[in-house]
Amino acid sequence: MTTTNGVPVAEGLFTETADGPRLTGSRCATCGTPSFPKAAVCHSPGCTESKIEDAQFGPHGTLWSYSVQYYPPPPPAKYDEPYEPYALALIDMPEGLRVMARVSTDDPESVKVGVDVELVLEKLYTNPEGEEVITWKFREV
Amino acid sequence: MREVAVAGVGMHPWGKFPDKSVTQLSREAVEAALADAGVAWPEIQAVSAASSRFSGGKGWGLNGNDIVEEMGSTGVPVYNLSAGCAAGGNALNIGYTLVASGLYDKVLVVGAEKMPKGFIQTSGVEEETDLEYLRQLSVGMPGPAFWGMLCRRRMEEHGTTEKQLAQIAVKSHKISIHNENARFRKEFTLEDVLNSAMVSYPLRLFEICPVSDGAAAVVLCSADEAKKLTTKPVWVASSTVATSRHDDGIPKGLATITPPGGTHHSEASVAVKRAFEESGAGPADIDLVELQDNTVYYELAFPEEWGLCEAGEAESLVESGETMPTGRLPINPSGGFLSFGEATTAMGVFQVCELAWQLRGEASARQVPDAKVGLGQTLGLGGNGTAVMLKR
């Protein structure tokens, strides 16, 4: 899978649809448990029969909490030089998922708990080939 | 199951020791524990060791084999336990089980680690099917940022202030000057902490634990052996291991389900609550706690999640000095991870050393008065949690 602007940070995690970006995962048809990324079997211990179906999640969410990372993260995380602090967050999505994500913002210190956010696919860093490496982020609506 | 006693404990000080191998740190701790127990190495019938992620063990986490080769290969059975930062607690649990089951009478538990500098690179593999690797690759979430998110949520729910967070670090370092094994033995003022660099908002440099080198060892024995070795035994009241629940509110990989059904940190709270049940003692009986304070946030969250205090009460306990060794709920009278730094896989054994010293009344100026029952707890990557209760 590729996005319009670059290469995905990993395969199979998100996609661009006619209705906008979506996270790609799965849902169990028996118990409704969602999973991101896609699960091979239902991970809910109470589920009686795993029936995994592809599912897409997004674009809406609520920001549950966040942090701002003031120092470069260790490998395998990569970043453009010079390093700029970034915000990361846990996002509650109406599909029943709490997802880890970068926050898309010019001012990480302005992030607020409880705000409505939407999914975007944006650059994480530029790779040595000059391509933008894309990941999923959420930005305040 | 038989009663299990702590016959002896030993520790190599925490710090940075570039001139010593992890096995040397380990040996010094083991020799101290054997001497404390009055047990000779050949008497040890089994070894339960934490598998180091970063040092020794031939890269396979065979740290128990390293120490056996170092001490003298007696043919003793070795168990190497890997459980992320909970490995020391896990090794303790297996050592406990080996004695409690009646299989062995004298068992050595050991944890030692030499840490590389800087933020911990959590996953040791580079595979996108490894969710820890994947989340570091795609989001970039060092440990302190993870703790920062949880702490920021607490500020939202309980009105926790940055000053209250700093007070916990002040408390830990106030104790640290009384512990000769601590790496950072220096008192800090509130201003010192609040002026330290912001690492992962809202957590500052002095409010998170750095990485350290260190080693700790414990000799466990049966009641019959304990009677021969000491007139003042300390007992393992319970030892438990748990893993996180599917409905935990904190994602282990990229996501978890909402609304969460259990507590946060279910691996820890399940282990602790089972430790209460199996010991027959409850939260009200706990005289001191050694909990995994990678960050000051945990000294607020964990006591509440385990029923040691009411929800939202932890901040006021800190402010009124009740978490000091002389307070109502002494937390980390060792000085904690904040004062020692984290030698990741050794920490569960480190906690048992401190609990034993406290229950024996040998903790000098950091002594919890008349301590009878102590609780230790670890949690680690993969959703591993452990708890141990000691009593006298």
What would you note in describing this structure?
The complex is a heterodimer of chains A (141) and B (392). Chain A has 141 residues and is an all-beta fold. Chain A has one domain (7-140). Chain A is 0% helix and 48% strand. Chain A is built from no helices and ten strands. Chain A has strands at 7-8, 14-17, 20-28, 34-35, 52-57, 60-69, 86-93, 97-103, 116-126, 132-140. The radius of gyration of chain A is 16 Å and the shape is globular. The mean pLDDT of chain A is 95. The mean pLDDT of chain B is 96. Helix content of chain B is 35%, strand content 19%. Chain B is α/β, with parallel strands linked by helices. Chain B has one domain (4-115, 208-391): Thiolase/Chalcone synthase (Peroxisomal Thiolase, Chain A, domain 1, 3-Layer(aba) Sandwich). The relative contact order of chain B is 0.19. The radius of gyration of chain B is 19 Å and the shape is globular. Classes of the chains: A mainly beta (141), B alpha/beta (392). Chains A and B meet through β4, β6, β7 and β8 of A and α4, α5, β5 and β9 of B.
What's this model, at a glance?
The complex is a heterodimer of chains A (141) and B (392). Chain A has 141 residues and is mostly beta strands. Helix content of chain A is 0%, strand content 48%.
Distance between the termini of chain A: 27 Å
Give a short account of the largest sheet of chain B: 9 strands, mixed
The whole-angstrom Rg of chain B is 19 Å
SSE string of chain A, helix = H, strand = E?
A: EEEEEEEEEE
Provide the spatial order of strands within the biggest beta sheet of chain B.
3-2-4-7-1-8-12-11-10
Instruction: Provide the β-strand percentage band of chain A.
Output: over 45%
How do the SSEs of chain B run, as a string of H and E? Answer: EHEHEHEHHHHEEEHEEHEHHHHEE
What's the average pLDDT of chain B?
Answer: 96
Could you say what the CATH topology of chain B is called?
Answer: Peroxisomal Thiolase, Chain A, domain 1
Number of domains of chain B: 1
Strand content of chain B: 15-25%
Domain tally of chain A: 1
- Per CATH, the class of chain B reads Alpha Beta
Instruction: Provide the low-confidence segments of chain B as ranges.
Output: none
Which strand order does the major sheet of chain A show? 6-7-8-10-9
The DSSP helix count of chain B reads: 13
